[in-house]
Amino acid sequence: MTILHYIHDPLCGWCYAATAMLEAARARPEIRLRMHGGGLWHPATRLRDGQRQHILEADARIAALTGQPFGAAYRSLLADPETVLHSRPAIAALLAVPEALAPAMLRAIQRAHYVEGQRVVEEGVLVSLALALGLEEAAFRAGLAAAPVEAHINTTRRLMQRVGATSFPTFLAERDGNTEIVPHMDCYEDAAAFVARL
């Protein structure tokens, strides 16, 4: 059994780019996934022009490399000076769902953000995504309110410091008590090669 530790952020474009790698790994029964949200946009941030341009350039590279879609509504969201990027609500949503549903919730958040241009910092948007996954609204809202987000982000950042991780995403493979970083930068176009590396 290999434990794949996925250090990510729901609002990280390169984590969105890594979707095929993550799904290919999850399809293998000998691999167990553990997700660690790192808080890329924490605290809440309104984008400056330079940040916005950097994101758009990265998005173009991601689309060309992986085929991942970026919708017009998302580009409009980025262009809106009132848009706030904040990782905390999305990470709370991942902690509020059963662990087995967290990857599906992550995909739903990413699609809502990158394709549909929804404001995933808003609780109502996150609730609608949870309902679409078949979750019960009151239970999900209670989970959101109780999610230990700050502790989770702090734990993730300590893990990153311990293993020398400096960016999102980072993949760690744990086997027999030993943990090592799994190189992935050359696998965005070849998820099978990433799985073979595990």
Automatic annotation (TrEMBL):
**What's the domain of life for this entry?**
Bacteria
- Domain (DSBA-like thioredoxin) ranges: 9-176
Q: Which GO terms describe its molecular function?
A: isomerase activity; oxidoreductase activity
Keywords in UniProt for this one? Isomerase
Work out whether the entry's keyword set contains Isomerase: yes
Q: What is this protein called?
A: Protein-disulfide isomerase
